Amino acid sequence: xAKILVTGGLGFIGSHTVVELQNKGYEVVIIDxxxxxxxxxxxxxxxxxxxxxxxxxxxxxxxxDIKDFFDSYSVDGIIHFAAFKAVGESIHKPLDYYENNLGSxxxxxxxxxxxxxxxxxxxxxxxxxxxxxxxxxxxxxxIKTAESVYGNTKQIGEEIIRDASTAHGINSIALRxxxxxxxxxSIKIGELPLGVPQNLIPxxxxxxxxxxxxxxxxxxxxxxxxxxxxxxxxxxxxxxxxHIAALxxxxxxxxxxxxxxxNVGTGKGSSVLEIINTFxxxxxxxxxxxxxxxxxxxxxxxxxxxxxxxxxxxxxTELSLEDALSSAWKWQQxxx
Length: 336
Ligand code: UD1
Description:
The protein is an alpha/beta fold. It contains eleven helices and 13 strands. Helix 5 (94-115) runs parallel beside helix 6 (149-168), helix 7 (200-208) crosses helix 11 and helix 9 (272-283) packs across helix 11.
């Protein structure tokens, strides 16, 4: 069976993807620098799948360490998650974000070029669309000037991959994630936000757990169903499975271009108040929240048109928002 390198494989989406790869029989080797996760995740993956993935603690900014890694491991594909991802922080630390998110990408692609490796999957984001003019958002929607340095690393990252794919014959796919949420049904792996969560669902679960006094709902004057902003929340297990589908497309030479990109969402938008109501209902609890001003930089609404991903990747979501919000709460309760 093919051996797949997963960078950032101990992170939120990475760990769920490792589990799905192993479930399909792939051999997995993980690179992670443990900068935003813990080594316990490796054991928790092993508990779920019964197979311990190989692991190398490497900082992908160190080119020589990447070279050494590829001297020891031969891989049939790479899924590249490792990156900084805090939108607010990225604005204050642009050079760190560009160095980390783009340096690592370039070094990996250089090794692929030099060693004639193929099949590269990249974590991209719906943030590349900004506030799209039309909803749902198709892959044809124009790329807007990035609102954040983080978003810009995803845009530039895609351009780097496109050019490297064309020049060096590396087949690659960028997956443009909408909002990943939830936890593995085993509740052994999930999202581990450090410090005060910036994203909605971890803030909700921490508020429900009493770690935060109150959730702030950012804005109720958007032009949406109830005035609160709308996003496309996708269960992380469904998102993980999209990576397997993309990998199989590349390995089986089913791709139509050397560089392709797909939206990965559910196709359904939910407002912040709808999320709160659903969370309260599925978990039978009440959340403390108040409405405050809009958060700077937030867009009104984003949800995916997934027609192309469904068809080309032969993939579709299987889990519901209720599944995601119930697993997110179980995961929160399991944290001590
Ligand atoms: C954010 C990033 C996006 C990134 C994604 C990763 C911004 C502007 N965008 O998306 O680039 O890819 O995270 O998951 O930061 N909300 C509240 N109260 C809260 C937190 C959030 O009302 O305490 C609202 C937000 O205003 C938004 C929605 O919940 O309408 C979702 O927010 P969030 O989870 O932060 O995701 P995005 O902003 O969509």
